[in-house]
Amino acid sequence: MKFDETDLKLMRLLQQDCKKTTKEYALSLGLSNTAVYERIKRLEKSNTINGYVALLNKELVNRSFTVFCHIKLVQHTKDNIQQFEKDVLKLTEVVECYHLSGDYDYLIKIHVKDMPAYREFMISKLTALHHIGSTQSSFSISEVKHTTAVPIL
Q1: Is 133 in the same domain as 69?
Q2: At the N or C end, where does the chain have fewer CB atoms within 10 A?
Q3: CATH number for 120
Q4: pTM
Q5: pLDDT tens digit string along 74-131?
């Protein structure tokens, strides 16, 4: 899909705050409400915009302990990969999962309350998954930068 400069500006504005009214975006872009509404609908229909979410304060919902866990599978078979990916989707503590190249097969990002909660997650959920050969965990000391926005150049 081809985007003009107005589309790019609109996408930046929506990523900053998607709760504004169409009128507020129209004023920022120098367009009519209808033109902005139609652009947003086109972006949604093309799946450029996949959805809208509320971003929660991890501290206030007791999920401020962030862990990055590298995972190696026992064997790299199609069945093992598919089963691991199916299983990890069910783990609510896992907020991101990436299949990697390099020394480890996967990197998962986990939000839990604290270290005891992570230990319980590891023992009862993660290591209970089949085909995991080893894990290596790193704990976040502080969040220097976090954004959900995709860079729009």
Answers
A1: yes
A2: C
A3: 3.30.70.920
A4: 0.89
A5: 998 999 999 999 999 999 999 999 999 999 999 999 999 999 999 999 999 999 998 9
How many residues make up the chain in this entry?
A: 153
pLDDT tens readout for residues 12-59: 999 999 999 999 999 999 999 999 999 999 999 999 999 999 999 999
Asked if residues 84 and 73 have their Cβ atoms less than 8 Å apart, the reply is yes
User: Sheet of 94-99: strands edge to edge?
Assistant: 94-99, 106-112, 65-73, 132-139
Residue among 149, 128, 153, 152 nearest 18 (CA)? 149
User: What are the structure tokens assigned to 24, written together?
Assistant: 């507020």
Q: Supply the CATH number for residue 10's domain.
A: 1.10.10
- CA-nearest of 140, 139, 73 to 103 is 73
For residue 67 the two structure tokens come to: 């862990």
For residue 147, tell me if it sits in a domain.
Answer: no
| Full residue range of the structural domain in which residue 32 is found | 5-45
